[in-house]
Amino acid sequence: MLTTALQEELAKPRTTVQLCILGIIAGICSASLIILFRLGYESIQLQYLSGVGDFASLDPVYRFLLPIAGALFIIIFAFITGFKHYRMGIPFVIHRVKQHYGTIPIRTTLNQFFGGMIALASGFSVGREGPSVHLGAAGSSFLGTWLRLPYNAVRILAGCGIAAGISASFNTPFAAVIFVMEVVLREYRIHMFIPVMLAAACGSILTQVVFGHSHELDFLTVIHMDGWLLAYLIPFGMFFGASATFFNEQLMRIIKWFRPMSMINRLLLAGVITGAVGLLAPDAMGTGLSAVNLVVQSPDDLNLLLLVLIAKVFLTMVAIGLGIPGGIIGPVVGIGVLAGVIMLLPLQLVAHGQQDLTASFALLGMAAFMTSVLHAPLAALSFVMELSHDPSVIMPAMLVIVSSFVTANQLFGNRSIFIRQLDYQKLSYTTSSIRDTLQKVGVMALIDKEYKLFSDDVSNRAILDFLDTAPTHPVVKKSQYEIDVSFELVQYDISLNPHDDAPLAFFTMQGVPSEATLAEVYELLQKAREGAVYIYRNHSSNIIGVITWDSVRNYLYKQDF
Question: For the whole model, what pTM was predicted?
Fold first, then answer.
């Protein structure tokens, strides 16, 4: 159990040693969970594939049956845990972070862990970053709630877990930090940034210990580009902005079309389609790494690259649109790499010796497509920088990212696929500015412990005498019933009725747990704009302090200056 002093320290919106240490612990816990998840699905794949993600090595009959069998296992596990707990992935996590301080239900976490593992092992075109975000947030938020941390600290730990999860998945700690701030938390605060950064570093270190220092895209290297090539990157980025808009539109259309269908039928249909397409284009199956490897093996085979690109786009829409548990970023990476290399081929018709640019255009295509699909330009830029290990990629990457984002956003009105999914599922992800400010402060940061408690057998005259001697201290009257206890705030009655012996005003107080934030206090008091709430620990009758409406109002005034 945390001491009161530590809980009060964590309730304040500032960077502390305690919060940094908790961020490190959360990062280690979440990264360990992600590494276990990754080892799980990779070990399953190696039972029947010659290498991780090498679905082309599987016999065509088994390649067709594998996704169907995977869909059946996902359905069985969803039935065991309850179909109503099937919501998962990055959009769901964004909703939980914004509306529930990042706490994740245990059953959705189990569905994500085992369902995501089966989906990745059976060849569905989904990424491991979706489960990584979900499991990372779950692991760290479980730690926070178990320690009974203030909710504002639990939210920060959820961000730490997400950063550690992404960092453990791709070995890109800086990109993981930017992704959390830009896509999930959707804000930049220094007291959040530091522990999230520490957690991402922990995720990267643990990944390097288990899987080595390299990542799957190490073979993609960037070379210097001439001035005229930089000019070509503007229409290059615009093409990806339009393509991302088309991708998001069609994905949402599939989600809406098949919504009336039962979840069991949707998952089975996804399995059948994935198996059928996998017969013709096995490189389109899996997370997207097979598509990246294909670029290295056959960079000049336009027909093959187009076939795999079309198949990859279609399988990704089917898997995500029909509800297969997994992420979208992995497939987006594969699609961007394939399309980027294809966009290089026209240059080879007008200028020879452009084959060395294959890796560069693969990385730039990935950055442009990720930017417009996710609406995450900074995350895409940092992702490319870490994958390339070359600062010379910054200028061309900025050109394609800006042109892609502006084209998608300004010309086509495209929005983040995560936000569109949240809107369609009617999951809220925004709050008012007042609530957003107050959610960052725990009640223990504003609690008044200098209160005087009177029992219900004390006369009003005695309470008035105390107020005359100590008017600045909150006065609470406790009423004991057979099975319940209630508390009232007692103040001077400003109506000053001359016929009243003891001019007192009584305000019934509601209880708020010590882990809550000022946002909960504001919701209870903002209608009457007077009175107070009492703060309790462990049990609603164990009062430890008071927060008045005036103190909340004064705190908000201070934030304006």
Answer: 0.90
